[in-house]
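Researcher: Here's my situation. A collaborator sent me these components and asked whether they could plausibly form a single complex. I don't have experimental data yet, so a predicted model of the whole assembly would be a useful starting point for our discussion.
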Amino acid sequence: MGEIVLARIDDRLIHGQVMTAWLQFTSGNHIVIVDDATAGDEFTKSIMSMAVPSGIKLSILGIDDGAALLANVPDGHKIIVLAKEPQAYLSLIEKGVKFDEVIIGGMGARKDRKTFHKNISASEEEKEAFRKIIANGVKMKIHVIPDQGSQAIEGLL
Amino acid sequence: MTGILVVTHGEMATGLMDSLRLIMGEQEDYQTLGLKHGDDIVEFSEKIQAGICELDQGEGVLVLVDLFSASPYNQAAMSFNKLKDHKYRLVSGVNLPMLIEAFNQRMIGADLETMYQAAMSAGKDGIKEFLEEMAKLNS
């Protein structure tokens, strides 16, 4: 049985050094992006695939296909899950995917977002998703870079 | 004139241009953009697109970014489909030799294709180690 070694929220999904650092830290071997829009956009998919180091498998899936894969991780797969927003994780949880924790890696400023903690911003809808994810027994932390500390978000909501 | 857009993490782009002006004097038809912590990535992408549109006077734009597959590169790459009316070339790994070559080529009237190829070569050739170079002299 494989496992999910990291579940991360990041607006920018895969980007450069950030991904390399997390791959080394978690020994992940398979990146699974769960995002309906990206899954339907061949051009963005090809740009994302260029960012993945050789030897690492990449899957870019919509919510339904993502849930199917993650609810039953294949043998030998150490999966890093990436999504742009917490709502995607809530959908995955509701479709039966089990997470121990979900980390917030990058949620930048946006018109509908307010500063949540330091450089992390979140909309009211996203905060509601955080609460529901936590209510499902999943830990939620802000953890931007592997070797820097993390912060639980319960106290911030 | 071909436009030049330098996009990096943090202040590197403005720093590179500061160094370039020291060496080559004041320049025109260029812009710099820096990504900061917590920036709105969509807004950043829009700034890149606006920069390319403003700099393109019909001869295209050379876009130089710091890291392959990182955000400045990714956002400039993902803008490609939205900017079909503009011609641009996107080169990663920008350093001072690359930037100097780009402005030099433009000064002597090179087109975008020649500019980006010469800039790429100069960027790579600018990386050398002293003792290795000494050994070459004596061989």
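Model: Some features of this prediction you could bring to your collaborator: Chain B has one domain: 3-138. Chain B has a mean pLDDT of 96.
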